[in-house]
Amino acid sequence: MRKVVDSRTLDLFSVPVQSTIPGALNLNLEVPGMLSLAIKDSGMDRDVIAFQMSRLTGDHISEDMLNAWTAKSKTQWRFPLQYLAAFEVATGTHLVSHHMAEKCGGTFLIGADVLQARLGKRLSQKKQLEEEIRDLQKRISGAV
């Protein structure tokens, strides 16, 4: 049986690297594609997503606006950042946030992943403290 590679799921333990290549952070063509992919992955109609975004933000967001934001040909229409949270809640995806975090050299964690990362950090700190305590105890014993 052939193993299917999931290119959309990020490796939680990979270390992201911030891009410093000139022009690499120009996302004019990437954002519409990511929005389109998130809409497709959600399985929802665009009018439903627009309605949910309107409800969540209190602003009027239409299906036509979503269409303009996802059309690579409409360069004068840019997706407003203030709508990202509502878009991701409405679509049930975090594709755009994951991508943006990677571009900045970070990662985007949600839910239990946040707690797992925090636990890992605390366990690492605990190990370092225990090593430091042992070292101090040895130094104290040797000084007496």
List the helices and strands and how they pair.
Elements: H1 30-42, H2 46-57, H3 63-70, H4 84-91, H5 95-103, H6 112-143
Helix pairs in contact: 2-3, 2-4
Shape: elongated
Q: Note the main sheet.
A: none
Order of helices and strands: HHHHHH
* Tally of individual helices: 6
N- to C-terminal distance: 66 Å
- What would the average pLDDT be, to the nearest integer? 83
Give the tally of β-strands: 0
Keywords: Coiled coil
Coiled coil: 112-139
Top keywords for this entry?
144 residues, mainly alpha, coiled coil
Structural description of this entry:
Helices cover 57% and strands 0% of the residues. The protein has helices at residues 30-42, 46-57, 63-70, 84-91, 95-103, 112-143. The chain has 2 domains: 27-108; 109-143. It is elongated, with a radius of gyration of 22 Å. It contains 6 helices and no strands. It is mainly alpha-helical. Helix 2 packs across helix 3. The longest helix has 32 residues, at 112-143. Keywords: Coiled coil. Residues 112-139 form a coiled coil.
